[in-house]
Each structure stands twice: as structure tokens, then as C-alpha cells.
Input
Amino acid sequence: MDLHEKIKAYIVENFLFGDLEPLKDDAMSLLDNGIIDSTGVMELVAFLEGDFGLGIEDEELVPENLDSVDNLVGFVTRKQAAA
Output
């Protein structure tokens, strides 16, 4: 499973309870569309840190990094490249 599939699968299983329909577009805002809330962001961060071995700083907790599948894939890719 590639990075994109792993992140999307986590969101579908943990926030959408297996229903892929609400996540039609990988660029859609997870927050604005009610898929995750602030607690969900923290769960997502724990997943990224645990599964990908990332250290995520407080200043990185911004929508540009975490608010869509596309943003998450880009963020993880950049973090992994910098490590």
C-alpha cells in the first residue's frame, strides 16, 4: 500500500467508519466538510507520528499540512525527505 492509499484508508476507517462516499475528492477540506474536528486532528497526528516515524511540531499543525488527503501526502513526503 502506498503512502496515499495508507493515509486515505486511515481516514476512511477511523473517521468515516468504512464509508468512502464522503471523501470523494482528495483535495477536499477534512475540517470544513466535518470529516475531522480538532480531536480528529490530534488522532491524525498520532497516526502520522506512529506509522511514519515523524516528529510533528506545533507550528506544523496547520491546514496547509493536515486538511486534506493531498495536503497530508505532501506533508509526509516533505517530512520524510527532510529526515
Notes: The domain at 3-82 is CATH 1.10.1200.10 (Non-ribosomal Peptide Synthetase Peptidyl Carrier Protein; Chain A).
